[in-house]
């Protein structure tokens, strides 16, 4: 099946953007009933993760605590001032896979899929691919 | 192939539970000879990882160091007192894939698969799915 | 398709080694046009990640900051003196998946694939497997 590109505009330097509905729409449009969806972020200062979809304070706490452990301003060599974003990208990770069954993402009740912006605001892409199996 | 659910009971707030034998059993029962196994944790305060299967001190050191960097008691907004568990979940990750060849998980000698409890004790699930390829 | 083993020799205790060209070669040799490549590290003190392929200072900053947050010398129980490497391995992760389309890895412009050595120098392996889909 074809790869789809999801376009995202972030609005802050650090931001967790819920993309669950867009991934669900991809699964429906692809007609995928049983399989796995691969989500991939083609950027080195962003990532993708799964976390709580209910209380927005969780998003705040994740961003705030990552910033306190990996601050933007530290003794880095890289001259662009975004080494913290590169480190967060590798810690959270650029890809995810989610199981699909009976045409639906097999997520837990409280799970949402989040694009993680660590060096915004920017225009970003997310690649999505289905494996029927 | 069908998705299988593995049920786990954790007994402490933080705990690494070796699920390697259960994943091996899934591969045998599924009759998977060549392919990939997807392991997915449908919880936002738990995760799944691969680490040393020999010295239990490694499990202790991972939990202890994560707690010292991401303590339960910190300046969090989320009112449930488990923001540290949400952060650890995103850092370690909710999913893994392991290659299967000749009917066996292609793990290194010292590798075991661990369910990571960060907000127990609780009753938890792990989803497992095979991709034959 | 068969699993391929890539052999790597690391030369320092911590080192990020660019393996993008080797993964691209695997895709060509496998004749994979559309699908997903699974990359798996069978070691518990190493990992695999995607990060910037241009300025080598980014590699330096990732290693340096991980060492400052997770130093080799800390209050660990594990007697081999490499608990920090086990922790980094679980944080960065032992596996990755990358989408392949029209016979090419679907990476972003600035993305390279890095084997992460955290307890070298050693002789290491990376497993690679293709899923055509």
Which key phrases capture this entry?
26% helix; elongated; homotrimer; alpha+beta; five-stranded antiparallel β-sheet; 133 residues; Jelly Rolls
What does this structure look like?
- Three copies of one chain form a homotrimer.
- By secondary structure, the first copy, chain A, is an alpha+beta fold.
- Helix content of chain A is 26%, strand content 37%.
- Chain A has helices at 20-30, 56-69, 83-92, and strands spanning 4-9, 15-18, 35-40, 46-52, 95-101, 104-105, 111-117, 123-132.
- In chain A, the strands form two sheets. Chain A has a five-stranded antiparallel sheet with strand order 1-8-3-5-6, with helices on one face. A three-stranded antiparallel sheet of chain A has the order 2-7-4, with helices on both faces.
- In chain A, a hairpin with a 2-residue loop joins strand 5 (95-101) and strand 6.
- Chain A is elongated, with a radius of gyration of 15 Å.
- The two termini of chain A are 12 Å apart.
- The interface between A and B is medium-sized, with 31 and 34 residues.
Q: For the record, what is the CATH homologous superfamily label of chain A?
A: YjbQ-like
CATH topology of chain A: Jelly Rolls
How far apart are the first and last residues' alpha carbons of chain A, in Å? 12 Å
* Amount of beta strand of chain A: 35-45%
Given as residue ranges, the uncertain stretches of chain A (5+ residues, pLDDT < 50) are: none
Helicity range of the residues of chain A? 25-40%
Query: What class, by secondary structure content of chain A?
Result: alpha+beta
The first-level CATH class of chain A is given as: Mainly Beta
Number of domains of chain A: 1
The interface involving the most residues is between:
A-B, 31 and 34 residues
The helix/strand series of chain A, from N terminus to C terminus, equals EEHEEHHEEEE
Shape of chain A: elongated
């Amino acid at each position: 099946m074809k790869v789809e590109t999801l376009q995202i505009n972030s609005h802050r330097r650090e931001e967790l953007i819920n993309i669950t509905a867009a991934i669900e729409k991809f699964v429906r449009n692809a007609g995928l009933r049983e399989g796995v969806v691969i989500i991939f972020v083609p950027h080195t200062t962003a990532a993708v993760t799964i976390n709580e979809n209910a209380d927005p304070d969780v998003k705040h706490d994740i961003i705030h605590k990552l910033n306190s452990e990996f601050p933007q301003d530290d003794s880095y060599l890289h001259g662009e001032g975004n080494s913290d974003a590169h480190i967060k990208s590798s810690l959270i990770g650029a890809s995810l896979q989610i199981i699909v069954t009976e045409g639906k993402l097999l997520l837990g009740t409280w799970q949402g899929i989040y694009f993680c912006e660590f060096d915004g605001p920017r225009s970003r892409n997310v690649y999505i691919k289905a494996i029927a199996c």
